[in-house]
Amino acid sequence: MKYDQAEAIVLANTIWSLPKLIYCYLDVGDFYGSTVTSLSLKRIFIRRFSCQFNAFNNLIKNTPYLRHFSVPNLSFTSKNRDLPPIIPLITRLNIGFNKIQGAIDQLLHTFQSSFWLVEHCWPVQCNWKLDNENISLYTLPYGFHTFNFVYPILSKSTSSINDNDYWWSYDYVHRLMFKNRFYQDSILSNIQFIQLRHLSLSFPVVDQFWSIVPTFNELTSLEVYSYDHHEFCQDQLQTLLDRAPRLYSFTIHENSSLSTQRASLLFNSVSVRELNLRYSHKAYTVKECVALSNSPLGMQCETLIINVKNRACVLELINRMSNLLSLVVRCSDDKNDIKSSATSDDIIEWFRDRLSQSSTIYRYGGVHNWIGLWIHR
User: Fold this and answer.
1) How far apart are CA 70 and CA 75, in angstroms?
2) Could you please report the per-residue DSSP string of 140-200?
3) Is the confidence at residue 203, as pLDDT, over 50?
4) Dihedral angle, C-alpha 364, 370, 371, 375, nearest 10 °
């Protein structure tokens, strides 16, 4: 949602006035701060939008008991480099900055006092990328569940590399978005993720990926954003699937219209039961649906999300996939208008005439032409 500055401040003041509020998750547009002091707020997570430095100072000032704070982008200029003095009270910090010359050393210097390093042993780290102007600053060990990793990443910390491995732990991270850019010179990273539940990435991956994510034993959800059908990429992705014994959900974004073979037909996993194919460059044909139902992933699939050419594809999937319990589908021949006031729904009635009476069929409210089916055999 978007607000003008006056409306945003009124909203923030209303939130900061709630006497028992402890955790606040903000996703409402630019944040301008609050003029009201909250004595209860301890955790604030700001998602996706920018926070001006003055608003950040204001937020810190009016949230004296704040302990966990995360914001993806904080505007930071040469005129306002000093962090507010109350910030040492925050035990978990994750801030994205716009980089300026000398900002990294200046930022780290703020956290090199005896309060941080001696009294409380709270080192901080700055990460930045080679090709843009963004800095990420956070306390060690990293204390948030989500991490965006764009390889190669450069780091500088107030903690020595020889310090206890505890400070270099990223065990809190359960959700990782990994992107890689290929450089002639490989860059080593001291960051490792060993407790991942969800992983999003593109193939091919750099060799260093396997040391950054050395284990997939806890992984339950995998999302592949882009995929090259080269044999090398197939081997990499299959290797990952083989090393993820608890993987349940597998999402594939097929962006290339040049490929003649579906990625969903190429791989196998003994544990995957949910297959999300909604992000495909084109709808599945009847022939492709038959091939999917005979593939290793299709034969064991219990939940399927997919775009298909027509309603006949749906019957092929249901009749051929013996383990399928839940199907979320969009048919290209579905002409239903969600704005129409008509009481009849042609495609829903068509399915009801052909499926078991005990099956449940419904439209997703507000989501154009997506239909859900609970299948009772």
Assistant:
1) 14
2) SS---SEEEEEESEEEEESS-TTS-GGGG--TT--EEEEEE---SS---------S-SEEE
3) yes
4) -110
∠ CA 173-124-53, nearest 5°, is 95
Q: Which long-range contacts (CB under 8 A, 24 or more apart) does 288-295 make?
A: 288/262, 289/313, 289/316, 289/317, 289/320, 290/316, 290/320, 291/262, 291/265, 292/262, 292/264, 292/265, 292/317, 293/317, 293/320, 293/321, 294/320, 295/264, 295/265, 295/268
Between strands 198-201 and 175-180, the pairing is parallel
pLDDT in tens, 66-78: 888 787 666 544 4
DSSP letter, residue 48: S
Phi-psi region of 48 (alpha: psi -120 to 50; beta: other; left: phi over 0): left
Q: What is the pLDDT of residue 227?
A: 66
> Which residues are CB-neighbours of 79 under 8 A, at least 6 positions away?
none
- Over residues 238-243, the mean pLDDT reads 97
pLDDT for the residue numbered 77: 46
Contact between 55 and 32 under an 8 Å Cβ cutoff? The reply is yes
CA distances from 172 to 144, 160, 305 (A): 6, 21, 30
The answer, yes or no, to whether residue 162 has pLDDT greater than 60, is no
Mean pLDDT computed over 287-301: 96
**Pick from 261-270, 310-319, 332-341, 346-355: least confident:** 332-341
Q: Which residues contact 339 (CB under 8 A, 6 or more apart)?
A: none
68-74 and 50-51 beta bridge pairing: parallel
Rounded-to-integer distance, Cα 32 and Cα 34, Å = 7
Instruction: Write the pLDDT tens digit of every residue in 173-202.
Output: 999 999 887 665 556 677 899 999 999 998
Using CB atoms within 10 Å of the CB of residue 231, give its burial: 0 to 12 exposed, 13 to 18 middle, 19+ buried. exposed
Q: What does the H/E/C string look like for 181-192? A: CCCCCCCCCCCC
pTM assigned to the model: 0.78
Q: Are the beta carbons of 348 and 361 closer than 8 angstroms?
A: yes
Cα–Cα distance between 19 and 48 in angstroms, integer?
A: 26
Residue 68 in 3-state DSSP? strand
Q: Is the pLDDT of residue 51 over 90?
A: no
CA distance from start to end of the chain: 43
